[in-house]
Amino acid sequence: MQGLELSRAFYDEVAAPMLRNELPSYVNQMAIGLVGEGSECFGFDDELSRDHDWGPGICVWVPEAVAGKIEPLLEPVFARFPATFRGATVRMAPKFRNGRVGLFTIEGFYRKFINSSQPLSTWQQWYTVPEHFFAVATNGEVFSDPCGEFSAFRQSLLDFYPTDVMKKKLAARFATMAQSGQYNLLRVLKRNDTAAALLASSRFVESTIGALYLMQGKYMPFYKWAFRGMQDLLDGQHIAAKLHNVLALNLTQGADIVSRAEAAVEAVCIEMVALLQKKGLSRSNEAWLMEQAEMIQSQIENPQIRSLPVLHGVQCS
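Above: the chain's sequence. Below: its structure in token form.
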């Protein structure tokens, strides 16, 4: 059983009955679930994940206005939770929480990840928050939320970027694919600069993954989970297989390495252009992705966003 499923069972069988019985006047003000940092919140945990910060646990989110009243009542209930559940250590003792489970204010939880205690209202806010923070703030599962305040905030993020922001980020990803994979990778290989070639191929792969997430309306998680997560997306496994061919290139050997690298990169680019067309974001078959990036950017309605350089925002996308 993975961590999220285990925590849901812990909530259903242990936490929910105790909270209803011991805090009947306050339980309806609590949103409860498991969201945030940790591989189990994404469903990516495995046996190796169990060496730290793993096990049944819950997040309890309440408005800041009532947190001071609820905390002294809630902590004694946490203290009476069993130490283990289905053979795993329960993480609700303070020494096991590490800021990932326990009591949080709704405002503080979202402020930590997206730098705002209210749903985002400007394109600048959406544009500047690193994408993996959105992924962390919206992963996992909400088990119960009678008031709906936490879930409403969560849904405003799950509805994804405003269209113009999404297009700007997508244009930057396609431009980076062109720059790193179609252009710089081949040039540095001709110079026998293996270190630069590794960096260029890695940037090409990461930008491709990011573009796929954007086209699927999903936030790309932290880099170590990005490739794993893309395989759960529509068309993800197909693109992953093409990217494996880029990652598997031996950049230190072979007189034909430039032609092999070019073929592997172009195979990815052809597939990504096809997906771009399927999403209605391009009608062009142009293989040079910088032109596709400029075409995407030209569709942006907001003049402030459209006027930004096509590669602007690569580091925060």
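The two ends are 33 Å apart (CA to CA).
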